[in-house]
Amino acid sequence: MSAEGSITPNAESFALSDQEFEAIAKFAHKHFGLALAASKKPLVSSRLARKLRQRNFTSFKEYLACLDGPNAEQERSGLLSLLTTNVTHFFREPHHFETLRNDVLPPLIEQARRGGRVRLWSAGCSNGQEPYSIAMTVLDMCPEAAKLDFKILGTDIDPVVVRHAQAAKYPEDELAQIDAKYRKLVPARDAEGRLPGSLRNLITFGVLNLIEPFPFKGRFDAIFCRNVAIYFDNPTQQKVWSAFQNALNPGGYLFIGHSERMSGPASQHLKTAGITTYVNSPAGR
Known about the structure:
The protein has 285 residues and is an alpha/beta fold.
């Protein structure tokens, strides 16, 4: 019973109709770029039913109305979190970070030491482990990076995970899995339990939707966007790949997830440079 004495619906009492699922799928594609196949209906129904029960909604129809209501931004953020999964850890896919260390960073560090500009982007940064792993790699090779024009951008469409990344607080057992050569850069968390300022100061975090025009003019020397495009349909993926290609400097690197494949016009310029690793060759060479 609810506080008002009425019966609160349980998860089993909600029935997501085909029409309601289609409405959610269209909304998710329009606002987030997510592709929800019909086979996802049971999963979407189960996850949303729990939310409806917690929030004392009486139907999916009532919930759908809230997505365009006064608290629409908060409701949309909550829906996005329900429809996606944030699974990541420090130095995920180690070979990408070996490429970063061995091939990408050496010339960029020399460029920065000569006064040049270097920009790296973690697009779809989730809870922050990826950009902090990039920062550890940079600092291990270039301890003075913070004094140079060397910046890392971390973005995600979900403001909840961006706030988590900005907080820079991770459990000790997760930090203990970091390789010793980088673990030395995290000798101890500060009084608030955060990662050291030497790492945090290299990174700027923000909320960004990859299916919308990018808000910055400068280009990047490397972009990590791993296990994000798996949520998109093929036309949306191609749009995002092209946007990344245009956002990369010539010779810049793009790292994508192992379940993702390069396709569309961008594939004429982004040439394979390793496992799910590409180099931007604007002339298509």
